Sequence to fold (151 residues):
Amino acid sequence: MRLLREELLLQVWNKKKEGSMKKAFTVIEILTVVIIIAILATLAIPPFIKTMDSAKGRLAKTNLKLILAAEKVYRNETGKYMPYLGGERTASDEDFKKYLGLEIKDKNFTYKVIGGDTFTGIAEYTGTRYPGAKITIREDGTIESQFPPSP
Fold:
């Protein structure tokens, strides 16, 4: 009787042990999941970055169009494009606010205009991914974009 009881206890203990092993993940299973997630991230990140860069470029173009519209109003009032101070010079963010009433908030581009008799608006990329990339708008509204640069 005692032997039977010990054997029953041993079987119960073994079943508990087997059951607890099946509830946990093995290192191989966890490693497999991590590798699959890494592969999916590798496939998803480049299109995400491309979409983000495209959105930054669209924002810069929109800001340049806004500057051009404000410049046209300024020219109708003064006869010259801002910043005309007896010669052509480059306007800065402070000039946009002072003369055009615009406050451009964009951490990815710096904006400047060359005014006087003609108008050129330039948005220069400030990041490190595309050094020297810029977007230009002329007084007739044509936009030349080097952002993001073609591969």
